[in-house]
Write a structure and sequence with these properties.
This protein is mainly β. The protein has one domain: Immunoglobulin-like, CATH 2.60.40. It is about 5% helix and about 55% strand. It has one helix and eight strands. The protein has one helix spanning about 60-65; strands at about 5-15, 20-25, 35-40, 45-55, 65-75, 75-80, 90-95, 105-110. Strands 4-1-8-7 form a four-stranded mixed β-sheet, with no helix packed on it. A four-stranded antiparallel β-sheet has the order 3-2-5-6. The longest helix has 4 residues, at about 60-65. The radius of gyration is 15 Å and the shape is elongated.
């Protein structure tokens, strides 16, 4: 018996005025794991996470419980906590469902620092 699965790749586009540090907590279904991704420079787009689920296509709400963005410069740091996660805040930049009902999606969240 072959069970079909969907997958998702998640990207952050840093559209703020400085580099950001990104940390996130996975959803409760994924064990609420805290992950410190690292730094994304101003204007850069980085993949932060991949998820796969048997029998469904992952969405941001099924992969994350919160994402923290930390902006830092010589005058200090500002922290933004993105929670709750809202699927409609993410833009789908790629889809491939050529093998049936389940496939791959690339999601992008644009962080502006506002």
């Amino acid at each position: 018996m072959i069970e079909e699965a969907g997958s998702a790749n998640y990207f952050i586009l840093n559209n703020s005025s400085s580099e950001i540090r990104v940390e996130f907590t996975t959803s409760t279904e994924l064990g609420s794991e805290k992950i410190a991704f690292g730094v994304i420079r101003q204007g850069d787009r980085k993949e932060i996470f991949k998820d796969g689920i048997i029998g469904q296509n992952p969405r941001p709400t099924s992969s994350f419980s919160e994402i923290t963005f930390v902006l830092g410069d010589s005058s200090g740091e500002t922290t933004y906590v993105y929670s709750p996660i809202i699927d409609e805040d993410w833009r789908i930049t790629f889809e491939d469902f050529s093998s049936g009902n389940y496939g791959t999606r690339f999601y992008e969240y644009m962080f502006s620092g506002e």
